[in-house]
Write a structure and sequence with these properties.
This protein has 322 residues and is α+β, with helices and mostly antiparallel strands. It folds into two domains: 95 residues; 209 residues, no CATH class. The protein contains seven helices and eleven strands. The strands form two sheets. Strands 3, 4, 5, 6, 7, 8 and 9 form a seven-stranded mixed β-sheet that branches. Strands 2-10-1-11 form a four-stranded antiparallel β-sheet, covered by helices on one side. A hairpin with a 2-residue loop joins strand 3 and strand 4. Helix 2 runs antiparallel to helix 6 and helix 3 runs antiparallel to helix 5.
Length: 322
């Protein structure tokens, strides 16, 4: 009798194979969707971590109303052992005429060692009057760009030789400004030889990160917070050093203000994190829907099969087999 029941059991599975296949496929779809969504956020964050490593993305950016000198760099290196490198650079918001209207653009000096650029089209500059422009700007290669003169640049008529992508701008947003219409339309990179400044405007700082904490991880955030505290403790010394240095060359020097920015203050960096966490939130809701649907399909299929086999079940119970 047992062998006949087992034979009948497999026969029922074969007869109702479409139902069983449907149940299996729906369950597999739910599990696959759940696994894929849950794996997306860690994959996105790890991909970002590798990208930021490859382009040597800064851990901190420092800005000062009076700029920085080599003395400023020495103060930081001598007092913060976590610092791996400090890259002094120049940047400023300026106005160019683009498509017959004035637009605000961010001017950076080219630095091949930090926040490395990705050349999309054209070539790297070989002369001081050649520049790289934001790949999103509607400026053709070979075009002459005229920048409003405010003595920050030695020349304001510059030739576009390349289009680039910058790790400082991994989102479509380019940030805000306190000049022009208040909105930055794009960025350009110029040779340091073109900069007319005795002091650095920015310091890009990279950390040793001996534990190789992953970007966006809590461990990395805690590490940044601890180093940030050390940098903040040096602000008075940095400001005093710049003030004393400025007094020697100017009677109207004022005490400077120094600002510290982390990766989290970068628009693109923060947006990427927010987007990855939104996907993680979706992954907590959508799979539940699939599992509920799978459970309902299983319940419906099994109920129908019980109804169809009610006579056989009753007979087996009457014979006290079950």
């Amino acid at each position: 009798m047992r062998s006949k029941l087992i034979k009948d059991f497999f026969k029922e599975i074969y007869v109702n194979r479409k139902r069983f296949i449907s149940i299996i496929l729906i369950v597999m779809l739910g599990v696959g969707f759940f696994s894929g969504i849950k794996a997306t956020t860690p994959s996105m964050k790890y991909t970002a971590h590798k990208y930021f490593e490859d382009v040597v993305f800064m851990d901190f950016t420092m800005k000062s109303t009076l700029g920085f000198t080599d003395s400023s760099i020495d103060i930081l290196k001598n007092n913060v052992e976590d610092i791996e490198n400090i890259y002094p650079t120049y940047s400023k918001d300026m106005i160019i005429n683009l498509n017959d209207s004035d637009k605000v653009i961010k001017v950076f000096s080219i630095n091949h060692d930090v926040n490395k650029l990705n050349l999309v089209e054209g070539k790297m500059p070989t002369n001081s009057d050649e520049i790289l422009v934001d790949a999103k700007l509607s400026i053709d290669l070979g075009a002459i760009v005229n920048i409003e003169n405010d003595n920050f640049l030695k020349s304001t008529s510059l030739k576009v030789v390349g289009k680039v992508e910058s790790p400082l701008y991994i989102s479509v947003e380019r940030g805000n400004s306190n000049i022009g219409d208040g909105k930055i339309s794009g960025f350009i990179y110029v040779s340091e030889d073109l900069i007319n400044s005795d002091v650095y405007t920015d310091l890009y700082i990279t950390l040793k990160n001996p534990e190789n904490f992953l970007t966006y991880s809590k461990e990395y955030s805690d590490y940044i917070s601890s180093v940030n505290s050390k940098l903040e403790n040096l602000l008075d010394e940095l400001n005093e050093d710049r003030y004393n240095d400025s007094i020697n060359g100017s009677m109207w020097a004022s005490i400077p203000t120094t600002y510290i920015f982390t990766r989290a203050d970068n628009i693109g960096y923060s947006e990427y994190k927010d987007n990855s966490e939104k996907i993680d939130a979706i992954g907590k809701v959508f799979p539940i829907i699939f599992f509920v649907v799978s459970a309902l399909v299983c319940l419906t299929s099994m109920t129908r099969m019980v109804e169809e086999q009610r006579l056989q079940i009753g007979t087996l119970k009457a014979l006290r087999i079950f």
